[in-house]
Amino acid sequence: MGTRYRRLVAAVLLALAAVMMPAHPAAAGTPADYPEFPYPATSYDEAFRGQFHFSSRAGWMNDPNGSFWYRGQYHLFYQHNPHGLAWDTMHWGHATSPDLVHWTQKPIALEPGVHAGDLWSGNGVVDTANVTGLKNGADDPILVFSGTNGATIHYSLDGARTFQTYGGGRKVAVPAGTSRDPKVFWHEPSRRWVMVMWSDGGGNGADFYTSADLLNWTWRSRYAAGWFFECPDMFQLPVDGNAADRRWVLTDASGEYVTGDFDGTTFLPRTAVRRMDHGANDAGGTFYAGQTFLGDPRGRVVQTVWQPAARGSVWSGNLTFPAELALRTGTDGVSLTRTPVDELASLRSGTVTLSDRTVTPTTPVSPAAADTYEVTAVFDAASATATRFGLRLHARADGTYDRAVTYDRAARTLYGAPLAPENGRVTMRVLVDRGQLEVFGNGGAVSISDVVRFDSAAGSQGLQAYAEGGSVRLVSLRFDRLGSAWGTGEPTLAGNLAGPWAAAGGTWTDVAGGKQGTATGDGFYLNSTVAGDGTYEADVRLRDAVAAGLTFRDRYTANVDAAGLVKLWRPGRDIATYATPIARDRTYHLRVVAAGPRLRVYLDHGTTPVIDAEDGTYATGRAGANVFAGTAVIGNITLGAPGFATNVAGPWRPVGGTWTAPGDGVRAQAAGDAFYLSGTTGTDFTYEADVRPVIGVAAALTFRATADASQHYTANVDTSGVVKLWRPGRDIAVYPTPIVPGRTRHLTVIATGSRLRVLLDGTQVIDAVDATYPTGLFGLNAYAGTASFQNVRLGPA
Ligand code: FRU
């Protein structure tokens, strides 16, 4: 789109935002401030809904924002209007994924009226070193940058569940002119944070700021360039995989980019402006406002991009499938390549491979029929006599089809984009989704992101390799069906209970807003975490069920009942009831404060309990959801002040030292080595915890231990500056890294036979072999000081 038109769009957006912004934004947000969430239920199966392309469960989305990885999850935020299918009142929507493929819709992260400023595009960073000093618990501070005409900060201290506005929404960096879309990243050589922001002071360009603490920013330089408009992104990549030749890439919203040098202060371009994608690269098109994830655990630069033209009945806008970016030297110099991340493989099935087939106008090759799939086809362009050849997608028996991905030999274009054959060959890789088509040529040398409203009817799912005006040799073809990425795992039961979950009666499925349970009598869905005292919360919605609620200590349930009651009961006894009208298809918030025998039930965030009762029958047990006689949805189940949160069965007992449970986890005071051992034995497993050496030397995970702890493996964080894996008499492996007293780290041990791996904050730091102890007890260890432990979890290896 032309610059003039872009400016017009921007001006309209600005004017709209000025009208929409409330005058008195509140300071902080709790889930109660987000009336739009849960969204209405969906099976993600509507026409044109991407099955492996991310879209918001409901409402409008535009730019991806604040994309980063934190402790095992990719976080994706996005420009979002939850109230309709057009751009309006920008919120930040939120979703998470362990693998860039399967996304879980989360409650809205930033909401106008709750969070200050225009909540427009920006990004997010994890402050692992606590340079902000904002940290107040186990989670690292997470900061997101947003705002127009200057950047504002919102931050989370609970792992991106809730955000607060920093400094009343004060602007921390204000370029001249109109500005927006801050992108913050770490610059290792200068050991500073850098912010790049689009602005139009004196024409289009980027302003660079730096900061040591992420909160105070200093202007450093400006890169002025007419081509450069909105949504800057900046990252460093090796050229042809050569780590000694790393270049900075600066991109804008339309996917135009230059590569060059950046010393932490000033950007110096070294190449001409190029385009990384050849779709419709504008705000109404098929590829716009991309962003890369920070902190990819495999060190990749992974990008996802808004597809504006994609839309369906309850959603509009989706993202391209995450692509890994690289720099490659070709005949015309260094340019970016885009390749779908290899995690896509988890959706593949029904593989078909072919090789060495001659394709002519009368003998097309039809390897398979499918709705959503991936094909990689290699054609020999050098020996071809065909003028055009390629793939026909969603072909029908009558010879029609929805789209052809064509290589034109005379024009040397793939799907309209310039592409020269490589060693005489043309490789086309296509991702075909319900409403999305991505085409990659010659290993990502060319990328074309498109929106196509494919006909998914059974008779319209043919795939053909075809040729026109002559023949072509199909050197090889691989086809894979791609399954739906939605609805696996625990996508909708947002909460903080560790799992695993298990049904005990009834059938339970994932829907928007939580877990939907259907039972003739009582059905339960329970988390394996055993807890006693604490604050339990859940959102409950009756569909046609008589009652549904929140179960805790295995046997107590607080419910809403369509007869017009809130009830606290246990098998055999209604402990107390409270009469109040209860409507179907409305979400009620239930909170239970359990303190010994005193059980209080609160409704819809009320400050006084509607039930305040005593029952001392059950002291501990699992928590979860209950449905009675029909169908209901229960979501967002959380347990606050959980004491010691663990799914490792006890009884836990000290072997040395003093161990206490002060309310948040367990705490050790140790003169030498002190152990806290569970009642659970394991051989192969993943064992993890949040560990904190409060004062003194080390905090650790112990495993395969004997009951007296004379034999064991222990993986620790040690304030002398190491992560260490040891057993009595031997340090098996040591990994030097700064360990600061007082700071919580996440330690993970993956044990498979004699292979013992240790991960620090999700990144593997030790991979060792030791065959001394094959099995034994799980426990915790502290050495010479005070250490605390929380969220101790055991899972499969
Ligand atoms: C790009 C954009 C950004 C802005 C956001 C507002 O699509 O115009 O520049 O921050 O959308 O939603």
TrEMBL record:
Taxonomy, superkingdom: Bacteria
Signal peptide annotation: 1-28
EC assignment: 3.2.1.80
Cited Pfam families: Glyco_hydro_32C (PF08244), Glyco_hydro_32N (PF00251)
GO molecular function, one term: sucrose alpha-glucosidase activity
A single GO BP: sucrose catabolic process
Keywords noted in UniProt: Glycosidase, Hydrolase, Signal
CDD domains: GH32_Inu-like
Residue span, Glycosyl hydrolase family 32 C-terminal domain: 343-478
Any one Gene Ontology cellular component term annotated for this protein: cytoplasm
Record flagged with keyword Signal: yes
Domain (Glycosyl hydrolase family 32 N-terminal) ranges: 53-332
Similarity comment: Belongs to the glycosyl hydrolase 32 family.
Name the UniProt record assigns to this protein: Fructan beta-fructosidase
Organism listed in the record: Actinoplanes digitatis
